[in-house]
């Protein structure tokens, strides 16, 4: 059974983690999706929650340092670093 792409057409890379803020894949993984085995695709999709948490931690830390406040009640926002082409 084919594994569908996790892309949600948000396609912006986070500057620190280099993960797409929409699908949580690296640029190399996005580019190589069509050539990946279904097993590898399942691995990437299964790793989504860990990658999302990593992105959130990095964004939270960076924004805390920028604002001078290490504790914030506001979730981090996502600023696009680059736009990927399909």
Specify the structural class.
Answer: mainly alpha
Q: Can you tell me the residue ranges where pLDDT is under 50 for at least 5 consecutive residues?
A: none
Strand content: under 5%
Terminus-to-terminus distance: 23 Å
- Quaternary state reads single chain
Count all strands and give the number.
Answer: 0
Main β-sheet description: none
Question: In DSSP terms, counting alpha (H) and pi (I) runs of 4 or more, how many helices?
Answer: 3
Radius of gyration: 14 Å
Q: What is the averaged pLDDT score? A: 80
Give helix % range. Answer: 40-55%
Order of helices and strands: HHH
Estimate the global geometry from the Cα principal axes.
elongated
InterPro entries: DUF1289 (IPR010710)
Protein name: DUF1289 domain-containing protein
Pfam family, one: DUF1289
Region (Disordered): 66-86
